Amino acid sequence: MLLRIFFCSLLIVCLQSVQANELSGYVANEIRYFTQEPLEPKQYDGFNLSIAGQLEYYHEWDNGYQSFLFVPFIRVDQHDSERSHIDIRELTWLKAASDWELRIGIRKLFWGVTESQHLVDIINQSDYVEHPDGEDKLGQPMINLALIRDWGTVDLFILPGFRERTFPAQDGRLLSGGIPIDTERSRYESSAEEKHIDWAVRWSHTIGDWDIGLSHFSGTSRDPRLLPNFETLIPYYEQIQQTGLDIQITQEDVLWKFEAISRQNKDERFTAMTGGLEYTFVGVADSNADLGVLAEYLFDDRDATTPFENDVMLGMRLTLNDIQSTELLAGTILSVENDARSYLLEASRRFGDNWKLSLEAYFYSNNAPVNDLMYGIRNEDFMQLTLAWYF
Q1: How far apart are the C-alpha atoms of 78 and 172, rounded to whole Å?
Q2: CA dist., res. 126 & res. 223, Å (int)
């Protein structure tokens, strides 16, 4: 059914593209290689191939005061049946005026400023079959009214329809120590389950060098607890109240970044925060290249339910500022309390007008203690090469 919906939507977009203001997208081939054997024999080993595609259709009218955006996404994966999936990332109508904007449909939006994790980013569900870093998001149905004033912008959100987190299949590579996650038996605290209507509000404003965001969310948590059930884990989605604050201060070559949340569920309230800086050396060695140095501290007062309880992130970002848009990001997250650590490398370069080659590598320390969440992913080191064609 989802496949038919996708291709019907694709056909409609193609037929209308002659009149569209903009039709773009990409097709990407991905090779992922796991350097270590899996923890469970059912999981695949070595190489994995997949292909993904995304269209973006944009049309505006009414002198630009109304617009429509449609972004479907599809991936077909060699080994992981759950990773072969279709999603509508965006399907939104926008009506704008001088001091307000109304958006209705499916949207994907981002809150936050820090590099290592995005505590305040809570509207969209993570698409974990796409990537274990949680940066990829599922589209969220919503009604969003933005009130634009001199003292800031207030965004009001009604969020009907909850999206469960996606997880790899039993034969896929997992983030749970090789224990399958049974999404067919997901449980909810609310009797309305996935039909619970969530809401959120956010105020954002720029004051001089300060960019500030203050938000509150009420509804179903996007982060499920994984409850043990014999040889599987069952996602449990609780009701939460979360207040978040994000601040970025721009001072010449330095960006100061800070995010903090306070979250309440029926059992407890916890606080988490991430803060640090990014200093950029402009024109390194009299070249066009910029070198950014990153440092952040991560704190979370929960016990053993997050890998980032007391950690430090160190990294560097190299931007060549060349015609090929060559970029490199390298970093590590180190636990202050034990030997748990992870390393990442991300690099990309464009070729011609339409091609982009990306390389990613993620490595996890095998010295993490058994009671640390990093212990469960000690064999999940992987490298990923992606070649994408944009149109």
Answers
A1: 10
A2: 9
CA 270 from chain centre, in angstroms, equals 22
Residue 183 backbone dihedrals phi, psi, to 5 degrees:
-75, -15
Alpha carbon of residue 209 to chain centroid: 26
In this structure, which amino acid lies at residue 232? T
CB of 243 closer than 8 Å to CB of 271: no
| 3-class secondary-structure state, position 98 | coil
Nearest residue to 378 (alpha-carbon basis) of 369, 389, 387: 369
Nearest to 59 by CA among 23, 104, 11: 23
Helix/strand/coil percent split, the chain, to 5? 10, 55, 35
Q: What are 370's two structure tokens?
A: 């058994």
Beta pairing, strands 140-149 & 152-160: antiparallel
Retrieve residue 78's tokens.
């060699």
- Domain spans of the chain? 2-390
Residue 128 · residue 175 · CB < 8 Å: yes
pLDDT tens, 167-210?
A: 998 888 876 667 889 999 999 999 999 999 999 999 999 999 99
176 contact partners, CB below 8 Å, separation of at least 6: 167, 226, 233, 376
Q: Residue 338: how many CB atoms within 10 A of its CB?
A: 16
Architecture of the domain spanning 2-390: Beta Barrel (2.40)
pLDDT tens readout for residues 59-106: 999 999 999 999 999 999 999 999 999 999 999 999 999 999 999 999
CB-based contacts of 150, cutoff 8 Å, min separation 6: none
